[in-house]
Amino acid sequence: MHILITGAAGDIGTRLRKLLKGVYPRIRLSDIRRPPDLAADEEFVAADLADYAQVKDITAQVDAIVHLGGHSVEGPWETIHQSNIVGCYNLFEAAYRAGVKRIVFASSNHAVGFYPRGKKIGVDVTVRPDSRYGVSKAFGEALAALYAHKHGLRVTCIRVGNVNDKPLDQRRLAIWISPDDLVQLIRIGLEHPDVHFEIFYGASDNETSWWDNSNAYRFGYRPQGRSENFRAEAMTAQAKLPSDPVADRFQGGPFCSDEYDADTPA
Ligand code: 15L
Predict the structure, then answer these.
(1) Ligand 1 site, residue 72, Cβ cutoff 6 A
(2) What is the 8-class DSSP label of residue 242?
(3) pLDDT-derived band at 168, boundaries 50, 70, 90
(4) Nearest to 102 by CA among 184, 220, 186
């Protein structure tokens, strides 16, 4: 299987490059900039996702794509529009035209960030983006559904929580995913014979999770990371953060309170 990883120079891309090395016989890496630590045996093709011709080049002759590329936090509309809306469309369209069979799309918890923390949500809730970035991830999920249902691509959207070696604060105790657990979910998306169009939450085995991730478990996901093992450290870090009633109420945290000017929630 020849795999393309977009966003290969980003934080998640850098981790995945190393963890997926040797798992698949050929991996093509792409990003707008060259990863500084590229090894001699790694294949890299630079591309700007907003330029269809460049996206066509990187999607040629691959069987499957892990799409991490784009802007990974909130940003001005022009940035989100070019990188995550136009870029994501170009990726799916070029992949379809090139005969790519599978795509794993890195969606985000911010597609549903305005659900309150007290509510356990599954993958069938309507989206509640908390930012322009979250809107772009909801758009990506919609595109994924279109190409799966209309054109038969096998697509997995992972609503990634926070990928890190350990959870950083109280919110992250609920949404943390270890890099190894993320690899497990990606491999399900790339290999499982029954994947058609799936949404998974990108979370480890977190006691305080507010997501029902039974769809991922149905496909054999068995996370090994447990955020509770890091509770003391995460809560020490939390105690240093200023109180923020909006961020503290909603799942998306600071992405919700950023630019927020509706009534303060009770
Ligand atoms: C995301 O989607 C971002 O890509 C990442 O940088 C973190 O901000 C993460 O969400 C989070 O919610 O912690």
Answers:
(1) yes
(2) P
(3) very high
(4) 186
Cα of 201 from ligand 1 centre, angstroms: 13
Q: Which residue has the tokens 């503290």?
A: 248
Between CA 42 and CA 36 the distance in angstroms is: 12
Distances (CA, A) of 251 to 27, 107, 240, 256: 34, 15, 19, 8
Query: Alpha-carbon Rg of the chain, whole angstroms?
Result: 18
Question: Which ranges of the chain does DSSP label H, i.e. alpha helix?
Answer: 11-20, 52-59, 77-80, 87-98, 132-151, 170-175, 179-191, 214-218, 231-239, 245-249, 254-257
Return the best residue to mutate from 71, 73, 173 for the ligand 1 pocket (most ligand atoms within 8 A of CB): 73
Q: What is the pLDDT of residues 195-215, one digit of tens each?
A: 999 999 999 999 999 999 999
CA-nearest residue for atom 13, ligand 1, is 162
The dihedral formed by the CA atoms of 170, 173, 179 and 182, expressed in degrees to the nearest 10: -120
Backbone angles phi, psi at 202, to 5 degrees: -85, 80
Q: Which pLDDT belongs to residue 141?
A: 98
Return the number of other C-beta atoms located less than 10 Å from residue 34's C-beta: 14
Amino acid letter, 88: C
Residues, the chain: 266
